[in-house]
UniProtKB/TrEMBL annotation:
It comes from Halanaeroarchaeum sulfurireducens. It comes from the Archaea. Keywords: DNA-binding, Transcription, Transcription regulation. This is ArsR family transcriptional regulator. GO terms for biological process: response to amino acid. InterPro entries: ArsR-like_HTH, AsnC-type_HTH_dom, TRASH_dom, TRASH_HVO_1752, Tscrpt_reg_AsnC-like, Tscrpt_reg_HTH_AsnC-type_CS, WH-like_DNA-bd_sf, WH_DNA-bd_sf.
Amino acid sequence: MRDLDDTDVEILRLLIEDGRRPYREIADEVGLSAPAVSDRVTRLRDQGVIRRFTVALDREQLREGTPVLVTLRVDPTNLESVRQTLRDHEAVEHVFVTVESRLIVQANAPSNVREWLLSVVDPEDLGAVEVDLLSDAEWTPTVGATEFALTCDECGNRVTSEGVTARFDGEVKQFCCPSCEARYRETYEELAGDV
């Protein structure tokens, strides 16, 4: 594992503009060969920097519901299950979680938003609900002035070239050193054994 360099950041920027851009075209832009770009993209995926490639749809063009922003107050003990339920629903585009245990959901809901919401989420899990109609929504990810610093999933320190990457139930975890990975693995296996 190594730190991300300017070439990695440029590859990410180009992929954000068009995730289907051919590696040959990216290679021409960054001064590498197409196989070298492919290797870097694979490494960025393995490190968890790139989580997935996706398509951004304009659902209004598809006439799939009313674009809304829904803010939900949720009991912190139910937050994860409500978030998961909403995230997995086909009408939901984005789910955001605030430190105050609020869920903010961008969705393309049927015309009766409250009825739709209550059919998706158990009413007992909900507190206050606010619904705002959206006139426009735009997703503009960027890597512009961002400084990439992977952090250790065990201790929170910065992951450098001595760091290691491991998968736990398919989820990529980053560690600053082998000892942090070992501690994390030990705790993970203990908790998995309790289930």
